[in-house]
Amino acid sequence: MTYFARGVVLCALLSLGCAQAVEIEPPPSSQGDCDEGFIDCGDACVDPLTDPKNCGSCGNDCNEGVCVEGACADECPPGTLECEPGSCSDISVDPVHCGSCTNACPPDQTCLNASCTCAGSAPDECPDGCTNVLTDPQNCGICGLICAPNESCVNGSCAPQCAPGDTLCGTECVDVSSDDAHCGSCFNACPPGSECNSFTCVCSTQQCGACAPQSLSSTVPQTVTGTTFNALNSLEPVCAALGAADVAYTFTAPSTANFAFDTIGSTFDTVLYAFDGLSCTLLACDDDTFGVESFINMPLNAGQQVVVVVDGFAAGDAGPFTLNVSSPPPCPTAVLGPTTPQSVVGNSSSSVAYYSSSCGGPGPEDSYAFTAPSTGLYVFDTIGSSIDTVIYARDFDCMGFELGCDDNGGGGSASQLALNLFQGQTIVLFVDAQSGGGAYTLNVSGPPPPPPCPTTNLGSALPQSVSGDTTLSASAYTGTCAGFGPENTYSFTAPVTGTYQIDTIGSAYDTVVHVRDTDCNGPELGCDDDSGGNFNSLVVVNLVQGQTVAIFADSYSSGGSYVLNISPPPPCPALSLGSISPQTVMGNTSGGSNLYVGSCAGSGLEDSYSFTAPANGTYTFDTIGSPYDTVLHVRDGTCGGLELACDDDAGGNLTSLLSVTLAQGQQVVVFVDSFFGSGPYSFHVSGP
Fold first, then answer.
1. Could you tell me the CATH number of the domain that includes residue 547?
2. Which residues, at least 6 apart from 15, have a Cβ–Cβ distance to it below 8 Å?
3. How far apart are CA 38 and CA 148, in angstroms?
4. In what helix (H) or strand (E) does residue 381 lie, and over which residues does it extend?
5. Is 99 within a domain?
6. Domain that holds residue 515
7. Which of 99, 315, 593, 650 could form a disulfide with 243 if both were Cys (CB 3.0 to 4.6 A apart)?
8. Does residue 29 register a pLDDT over 80?
9. Sorting pLDDT into bands at 50, 70 and 90, what band is 26?
10. What is the side-by-side strand order in the sheet with 561-567?
11. What is the dihedral of CA 251, 255, 258, 259, to 10 degrees?
């Protein structure tokens, strides 16, 4: 490898008269015992970049010139001086010629900006030389401040000199592997109830998995504050994410009553949960009842202890919190019967002011549960009361979503609230007061009772069609899929076991059909809105002989005239292909049924064929050439057998194609189905 002198480039840039470029001998690693950057020229180690007698290489004498970067030059470049014959010095940084020739810096100083100064690891100048006052025990913090013999200088302050294995934390030496105030690192204190073990804070005492619960008094109400900062993550809530720190408390019920705990006033997204103090059974868990603040409520027996845990929603959710303990009154106070109209007389003078609403109600209140006997509009009012009332309703229970609220809508100081409720929906009504409690009247009115259901018995005749009109009918029932308008109802008893199609095909408006087992309040067996096409509905249900069902000819919204059709179970398979292969069958699914669906598709009408394999082998079934979107699926043995294959569009142009391997004499049922609707088809069998 050839090494060229850097001075050649320098000379070219300075337009100096330089000697011809010379090769520099390899680095000193191959030049005997010379220091790095020097070469061995026989009697001495020299710097080939500056030595005028060995400039660039041993024996290359610059004569009257100077050696610059391993090349001879006539004079020193600007900014340097020839302080020694043939050698150029940069007096701004040369510690031998600092600021001027022969002005050598002391051994502990360096030349910076043409002045001798302290720098590097010893940047501070003291009378006894350059030093570092942050670490020098003879000049600790300031020059001349000497630390005691058993001290060292740490960050400019004298501190104890720690034994091996200890760490200096502030002004004391500690073992961070076991020190509770400095666990793992300085000033990382373990929270109460935990201790430092192997550099990590671990819980020293537990109850129900909670780390060292703090004891609350039995005073109710009470409020305590704390923080989950620096707390351990000892538990994971079932009603939130994982990884947040938690703080726990024990509380002993002073009497048999309901007790509530909440985190209203906390600064982060809290989670609140409680365990029975003896069995550790989870009693309640809540995330966000009030925004990101939590609320739990539970009945406790006198003397029963619970462990209440304040947690965060997810890792990183931590901070100061407020935990409030209260004893809410029983809620609901009473249960209203499911009848309308009805009136209840009460007095809230001795009731407790605990709940409130979006429209007021700071006074005492009574609460009532009510379950709607039918779907419709219900009106609740306090007309006739002697106090200024507020009425509001919550869904399902006393902590449910507020459905409505009113202050003086009933005239004067009386309140009135109207709600649309579904049959079976339970709400809690609050009769609250704007100030003090007193005598009140709660009135409940609702829709007229539903008509007898079913209204018409269709018997067991098959097939049959009935016409009707729901324009003037009541809206008392709703299916799971729709049916918010008026409906007519029918009973039907299956004469044979099978699959029945119940539809409104041919009706003049947007219908809904739903079917319930046994009677109008039985479990729903099926519900459909528009599967029959043109806003008509179609339901398929499996019934056993003698089973009675209630059929609802319902409306999506407003009523109209309809046709209700009940079709008997069609034979399946409908046709037989025998054992002929190949063969082609032309057909049209417009006259088929919509009772079977393949795993890949097939929600339209279908025809079904039986086929018996004449020999062992692979058989192909396709609808290639059909003009609409077909689906093929094959079942083993019978129409209810195991599906062997299903295809939607493998035949191209929305036609279907599939292959199955059959044994001689094996019977299958092939369904020529429709992706949606129906149409003409060409069905082919081939193989093996």
1. 2.60.120.380
2. none
3. 45
4. strand 376-381
5. no
6. 456-567
7. 315
8. no
9. very low
10. 464-469, 561-567, 498-503, 538-543
11. -20
